[in-house]
């Protein structure tokens, strides 16, 4: 789960000594079902409102004096995670890093309940040591949820699977509020952002017509591939399961690139026959190869081996530019 690894990387930037974990639940008696509860939280923006209210605190008048009923919490960063109960009701884990250390960072159950009035119960805890923090973050990175033996908390409830166009965000981050939705929507070559490609037919489906059930059912049935040939590059969706690609074409996974493998001309033609939707780019390197000095290196972006040496520097390293993607690297 790449999103869990990315979220875990965000959490590792937190100072565990100043971090509190808050669990916010929903009282089922206040709502008809989990869908109504989730819609209410989203429409009324209860999560960002909860964070703002913690930062604002509560000033009340006692007699002639104004006093703090709840002192403002100086939040330096936070991250929220959505999980599900078996009943289909949502709950959230909120990691809050404050400017204060240890017990001085405690927020308090009264303040949390005051600013989360829809709760059945709330819970606040701290991390006893760096080991405790690393174990918690590591478990989440591996499994995608926090509490052991509760895998159901990562599964979408039944009501969420059949609603066309529904988008559910698993996490939000004070450091990266502009993060894109983590569904399987993609931007196609025609610029239709968010459209879904059916891996069996190659049809483009508008996002408001696609359910999570269809997205999950499509997982693994098609593979996005880039094929680099003598005079062209082909990128597109192929009607071949990803596991079948790994089985039929031995290769290796490269960080930042993906699964890389080599194929013969016959194998490339066989793959092209299974392409559902794609784009072809042609390029000519003959003249460049004759006129300029070529040094071979591996490009971590496009996978090309051919580099053009653009200038030498005085130390032992050289600068090269990839002829295909034009990225510049130092070796």
Overall description:
By secondary structure, this protein is of the alpha+beta class. The protein folds into 3 domains: 2-173; 196-282, no CATH class; 286-330. The protein is built from 10 helices and 18 strands. The chain has helices at 2-11, 34-43, 46-56, 109-115, 130-143, 158-161, 212-218, 242-248, 265-272, 286-291, and strands at residues 19-24, 58-62, 65-70, 75-84, 90-98, 122-126, 171-173, 196-197, 204-205, 223-228, 232-238, 251-254, 258-261, 275-282, 294-296, 306-312, 318-322, 328-330. Strands 6-1-5-4-7 form a 5-stranded antiparallel beta sheet, sandwiched between helices. A 4-stranded antiparallel beta sheet has the order 15-16-17-18, with no helix packed on it. Helix 1 (2-11) runs antiparallel to helix 5. The longest helix is centred in the middle third of the chain and has 14 residues, at 130-143. The chain is elongated and about 85 Å long. The two termini are 33 Å apart. The relative contact order is 0.10.
Q: Could you list some keywords that capture this structure?
A:
alpha+beta; 5-stranded antiparallel sheet; 4-stranded antiparallel sheet; 331 residues
- Number of strand segments: 18
What can be said about the biggest beta sheet?
5 strands, antiparallel
Mean pLDDT: 81
How much helicity do the residues have?
25-40%
Strand content range: 25-35%
Q: Strands across the major sheet, in which order?
A: 6-1-5-4-7
Structural class computed from helices and strand pairing: alpha+beta
Biased composition (Basic and acidic residues): 175-191
Region (Disordered): 172-191
